[in-house]
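Quick one, tokens below:
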């Protein structure tokens, strides 16, 4: 059993276009012995969509969390304390995917992305 952190793009692919996932990633996601966490950054992206007037955050966050749960994944917490800690850790990391890498270290978990 292993812990993995899934980024938002991979969550969306797992939900609607699993063919976009690498074979190794797909095998990890369907192995129920693994714990799959969905990054809080996924939900932070929802804040930006709401700020741009393109989506209601509460509705979008609920849909993403519901989809993650239905797929057997665990949503990482999105409390202000968690986000602040992730942002603080991320500030010390090089690009790309600083916040994801910080969350993977906080968990600890192996980061899964589409790349």
């Amino acid at each position: 059993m292993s812990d993995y952190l899934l980024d938002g793009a991979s969550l969306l692919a797992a939900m609607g276009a699993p063919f976009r996932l690498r074979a190794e990633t797909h095998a990890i996601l369907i192995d129920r012995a693994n714990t799959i966490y969905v990054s809080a950054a996924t939900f932070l992206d929802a804040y930006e969509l709401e700020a741009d007037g393109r989506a209601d955050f509460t509705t979008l966050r609920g849909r993403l969390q519901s989809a993650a749960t239905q797929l057997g994944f665990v949503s990482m917490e999105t409390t202000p304390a968690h986000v602040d800690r992730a942002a603080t850790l991320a500030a010390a990391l090089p690009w790309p995917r600083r916040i994801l890498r910080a969350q993977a270290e906080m968990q600890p978990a192996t980061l899964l992305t589409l790349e």
